[in-house]
Amino acid sequence: MNTHRPILSVDGVSKRFSGPYSLLRRLKGEPPLAVHALSNVTLDVERGETLGIVGESGCGKSTLARCMVRLHEADDGAVRFDGTDISNLHGSARRAFNRRVQMIFQDPYGSLNPRMTVQQIIGEALSVHKMRPKADIPARIAELLDLVRLPADAAARYPHEFSGGQRQRIGIARALAVEPEVIVADELVSALDVSVQAQVVNLLLQLQEKLHLTVVFVAHDLRLVRHISHRVVVMYLGQIMEISPADALFSAPRHPYSKALLEAAPELDPGQKNRNVALRGELPSPLNVPPGCPFAGRCPHVFDRCTVERPLLSPRGPGQLAACHLTDFGAAEAAATLPAQPGH
Ligand SMILES: Nc1ncnc2c1ncn2[C@@H]1O[C@H](COP(=O)(O)OP(=O)(O)OP(=O)(O)O)[C@@H](O)[C@H]1O
Ligand code: SF4
Ligand SMILES: [Mg+2]
């Protein structure tokens, strides 16, 4: 049964951006500072799953998403799609990758051309990738609009005539037009009203099941991530702190940062009892990543080893990985959530 391979694998990926270059550094002849947006990130995305990616602002979620679709090239490491390093794809193989892996962005205004009707927007995607003979395009557009639950008369209208939620549906229809296998959604619903967010996320959930899509879902809102994801990746300062099945993460996180992030999330704590308590201290700058555990400066459990040695992701419970020197962190809570053994 071990013959499967992940549809996408991220293998030791690092990504740096050039940071500010101060006059002082210039005068001293020092090179510009580098922003370490991703440091040695490794994860697999399994075919047909929804993988959530969470973490505070600036932790590298979008950079990771962009590396996965090759909007950024990794500085080190590789992203493989169906086993092939995507940086080696050229010509028709690259076009095929661009079709099979689609990214949907947060901003429904910015990503839809205001001068094109919905019909033209979706029709363009269909013709660029030669998905249908010309004569079949109107019928396919109608089918796609139906799939995302927009009325058929939406085809002749312009993006500004729609609400934010409807525009995200148009973005989803455009992405689905090319029959992708993977959808990478970066803050898909963050710009929408809370009441509309659930509708769009539920649509994505239904489409994922119906079309057997693989979805990478980047979001701030942990409640939505829990609702939609099979597994969740928790990032901090460009590194992965924990990868867990969603249920396990939310019931018994195995990394102190995951626990703090969940406790600080207002959407998971309507009474707001724990707010501002759990995540104390400043997020360090990605210009100056500490040598040991990136969370050491804020972790209530920090000890000597943490500041000198970077913990590696290592197995915890079933399907769970965490990067913490305290390998039994959260183990008692995890054991308490296991179903009782028969006969006990
Ligand atoms: N094009 C760029 N040039 C320079 N720095 C960048 C660039 N893109 C991202 N960064 C920096 O890399 C780090 C990671 O940014 P990224 O956008 O991936 O974070 P994020 O987790 O998506 O944050 P948010 O939740 O705010 O969207 C940040 O410090 C950011 O300022
Ligand atoms: S390695 Fe140390 S500092 Fe980092 S999360 Fe674990 S206990 Fe805290
Ligand atoms: Mg982002």
Task: Describe what is shown at a glance.
With 344 residues, the protein is of the alpha/beta class.
List keywords for this structure.
344 residues, alpha/beta, 8-stranded mixed sheet, 11 helices, 12 strands, 31% helix, 19% strand, globular, binds adenosine-5'-triphosphate, binds iron/sulfur cluster
Describe the structure.
The mean pLDDT is 91. The protein has a domain at 235-337. It has helices at 23-27, 61-68, 91-100, 118-128, 137-147, 164-177, 194-211, 222-228, 246-251, 256-263, 331-337; strands at 8-18, 34-45, 50-54, 76-81, 84-85, 101-104, 182-186, 214-218, 231-236, 239-245, 314-315, 321-322. It is α/β, with parallel strands linked by helices. Helix 4 runs parallel beside helix 6, helix 5 packs across helix 6 and helix 6 (164-177) packs parallel to helix 7. The structure holds adenosine-5'-triphosphate, iron/sulfur cluster and magnesium ion (MG). Residues 61-62 line the site of magnesium ion.
